[in-house]
Here is the input.
Amino acid sequence: VKGEAGQVLALDASALESITTPGVQLLVSVHKTLSDAGGQLRITGGGELLQAVFAQIGLGPLYAMWAGENA
Here is the structure.
C-alpha cells in the first residue's frame, strides 16, 4: 500500500468470519502507511467480531476510529 495525502482506503469486512494475528498486523501496518502519508483506513461491516478482537488486544480505540465510531 502506498499512501497518498487525503487517500481513504475502504475495506468491507462484512464477509469476515475470523481474523488471525497476521491479519491484525496487516491492518495496523496499512493504517500506519496511510496515516503517515495523510490518508485514512476505513472499515465497514466488521461488526462485533472485529470490535471484540481489537478490544481484547488493547486496540479498541484504533478499530473504533477505522469504523467511524466514537472511541
Notes: Strands lie at 8-12, 40-44. The CA atoms of residues 14 and 47 lie 8 Å apart. The longest strand covers residues 8-12. The chain has a mean pLDDT of 90.
